[in-house]
Amino acid sequence: MTHIPLNPFELDALVARVEAGEALGQAELDRLGREVEARPDSLDWRLCFAHALINSDLPHRALELLNFEGAGTLHEILIHIVRARALGAMERFGEAEETLKKILRIYPGHADALRALALLRLRAGAPAEALRLCEEVLITDPLDDATKQIRASAEEALAAAPDLPVPAPRSARIDRLSRGSFFQALDRALSDQSWPHRIAGKSGELFVELPRQGLVRLPIDPIWRESRGSESSRREAIDALIAELKRIDANES
Questions:
Q1: What is the DSSP letter of 196?
Q2: d(CA 107, CA 98)
Q3: What residue spans define the domains of the chain?
Q4: 73 with 66: CB under 8 angstroms?
């Protein structure tokens, strides 16, 4: 059968559903699988398909997908994070936690590993530890919705079991020039323009639906890095980005 690739809008919609943790139907999984086959060297698509399989209660297939040459080292951290998620879905919790702890020993503070470990600790009946891990992630990225959901579940579990120890509250201070605060300020600025948008914290990309030009995709981590000098630098960088998007929408050179 001839492979008919999904158009960019269909792909973005499908990826967004995978990122939201939705289960996919068999036809959608087959389409994602064909996209992976068409891009055999693309790790991003392999990982996306693995997440989709886990979301759809097929973690054993995800593990098989991640068993390829070069996947056995910690060089590609995200492979091991997805593998840990698949192991957790198969209730092989000890193996899953050990994989994540190995990553954190080499890369302390890695947000994806911390978030995944927090979810495992919550499932293991350790909500206080899960809450502490969530707070570590949210200090640097307060817009991380997935971590917020895990934190809320951990707080509910602690409220239901008042005899469990509650971790000391983290400092209320969040660096006002952090990546997360930049994303928050950018989100407000885009909302003020009434433009549908999504900020992908993991990849550092911005997706904006402009009135005339449609979907625009831009890397925003370089803008954040250049604007970390001061709050005024951040405001100027965001104002410049909004002005550039307006020029793009007006099709100005």
A1: -
A2: 14
A3: 8-160, 179-249
A4: no
Displacement of CA 54 from its chain's centroid (Å): 15
CB contact at 8 A, 199 and 186: yes
What SS3 state is found at 225?
A: helix
Residue 199 corresponds to which tokens in the numbers above?
Answer: 């900020």
Q: What is the pLDDT along the chain (253 residues), one digit of tens a residue?
A: 444 455 556 677 888 888 888 898 998 899 889 888 888 888 888 889 999 999 999 999 999 998 865 555 545 788 889 999 999 999 898 999 999 998 888 887 888 899 999 999 998 888 989 999 998 888 777 788 889 999 999 989 888 875 555 555 444 334 455 777 788 788 889 988 989 988 876 677 888 999 998 898 888 888 887 887 677 888 888 999 999 999 988 885 4
Q: Domain 8-160 maps to which CATH number in 3.40.50.150, 1.10.10.10, 1.25.40.10, 1.10.1330.10?
A: 1.25.40.10
